[in-house]
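ingest -> validate -> predict -> emit
validate: passed (alphabet ok, no gaps, 144 aa)
predict: started
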Amino acid sequence: MEPTWDPAGPGVLRLPSGRLVRGRGLLRPMPAGLEPSYGVYLLADEPPPVPWDSRWICWPDFGLPADRAQFLPALGDAWRRAATERVEFGCLGGRGRTGTALACLAVLDGVPASDAVAFVREHYDPRAVETFKQSRYVARFRPG
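emit:
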């Protein structure tokens, strides 16, 4: 098993299962320390290549995934990989799209959908999940 994220590191969220995932704003410099093993990037346009395994989900700023059927498998894959790998989620600012994805990941990990936005705001970023549409998406999120 490879080293995981530092639980006190910037943007690191501990899920109820103990899995650690990192959220970050891609407009900011890469945090010091270990690189991700796997990244899920939530952007309107395809991001530049990175030296680790990654997946792009087309997701307009302040919106929702353009292809929601593509989002669920990516989320499930990230959740499974987070058990043994350094997984990160990122969008430009690291709050709206990233917070929404992390809240959905928390639902996959057992947090009730009605509590997931509050969970991510408490444990990741108080300004995570920026729009009513994103909050409603999380509240209605049902994996599988």
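The chain has a mean pLDDT of 95.
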